Amino acid sequence: MKRLTRAELAERVGPRPPSDAFWSRVIAAERGTISVGPEVVGDTDRRARENRRRRGESGDDGLLSPGDMIDVGEESFVVVAVEETRSGGRRYRIDLVEPRRGGEEESRC
């Protein structure tokens, strides 16, 4: 499991990282999808990818894998699914992690 900050994720995504508006919408909706192209994933060999699919093998998840965390200010998201696109990119479905309720009170008990 990896844990990245928003800035670390932006560095990995490259020239078009998720914007402030994207993160605002994702926080409000409590879920979202980060999409990246094959050049970001590093899997640009279409023939190898198609052969891997025919064999029923899963490929490299790229930047993120299920269970990875992304910290955005006070909020945290977990990657719940990874989908490979036809072009070889990836879609990472993320869900907001619910904050702990009464964290201080729980630790006193």
List keywords for this structure.
109 residues; alpha+beta; five-stranded mixed sheet; 5 helices; 5 strands; 34% helix; elongated; disordered C terminus
Would you write up a description of this structure?
This protein has 109 residues and is of the alpha+beta class. It has one domain. The chain is built from five helices and five strands. The chain has a five-stranded mixed β-sheet.
Describe the largest sheet: 5 strands, mixed
DSSP strand content? 25-35%
Counting DSSP E segments of at least 2 residues, the number of strands comes to: 5
> What Rg, in angstroms, do the CA atoms define?
16 Å
Helices and strands: which structural class? alpha+beta
Q: How many helices in DSSP terms?
A: 5
Reading side by side through the largest sheet, how are the strands ordered?
1-3-4-5-2
Poorly predicted sequence stretches spanning 5 or more consecutive residues: 103-109
Report mean pLDDT, rounded to a whole number.
Answer: 83
Count of distinct structural domains: 1
Secondary-structure element string: EHHEHHEEEH
- End-to-end separation in angstroms reads 30 Å
* Estimated helix fraction: 25-40%
The rough form would be described as elongated
Summarize this, please?
By secondary structure, the protein is α+β, with helices and mostly antiparallel strands.
